Amino acid sequence: MQIIYLGHSCFKIKGKKSTIVTDPFDNYIGFSMPQTEANIVTISHEHRDHNCLDNIKGDPFIIRAPGEYEVGDVSVFGIPSFHDGVKGKERGKNTIYNIEMEEISLCHLGDLGHKLNDKELEEVNGVDVLFVPVGGIYTLDPKQAVEVVAQIEPKIVVSMHFKTEKINESSFGQLATLKDFLEEIGTPELKPVDKLIINKTSLPEEREVVAMTVR
Questions:
Q1: What does pTM read for this prediction?
Q2: Taking CA 196 as the corner, what is the angle to CA 192 and CA 197, rounded to the nearest 5 degrees?
Q3: For residue 159, what are the β-bridge partners?
């Protein structure tokens, strides 16, 4: 399985038979979403930095709500959650996606804005790769993100939704940076990689933090 970071909360997860794209974004965020072919697209919520399908090629199966989905060799379980810490009163609902693919469990938290309760945590149980927002303002901030990582206990942690040099300053200029999160989680000198290649047997025994550069 190969994981490539396309920016913001968007990842391309390419397996032997299927390709998944998470939360494709509109170019208003400050840089362009590349044209990308996919079999499956997951959308955590209906904001245009997470639901823009303009550059998705092919005829993908679109998942944009909680529920259970079977698409080819991929199982997706959407878990209802909130975009803020006050049960959606500020920014609405969010869907967490648990993705089972090639015997690997991936969890994309979308724009999660709160720690998980017992029911949510039970449904997210057994995560190998966790995609966690870390920028704050609209999502978990670095401190909260570390707390959620500790709740879920994944084998691999991949951060997303943070401030970069290219991002639209008027909309996202106040977000925390990747460096802020890496310092909070205790890996300040971690060097970003351009892709992550994993399989069931290569998963680490102890938690590993991975920083990714945009492709």
A1: 0.97
A2: 150
A3: 132
Q: Which residues of the chain fall below pLDDT 50?
A: none
**Structural domain of residue 92, as residue ranges?**
2-210
**SS3 state at 157:** strand
Residue 202 DSSP code: G
Question: What sections of the chain are H helices per DSSP?
Answer: 118-123, 142-152, 169-172, 178-185
* Residues in the chain, total: 215
Distance CA 14, CA 18 (A): 6
pLDDT tens per residue across span 108-133? 999 999 999 999 999 998 999 999 99
Which DSSP symbol is given to 17?
Answer: S
Q: So what's the pLDDT on residue 215?
A: 78
Asked, for residue 167, whether it belongs to a domain, the answer is yes
Count of the separate structural domains present in the chain: 1
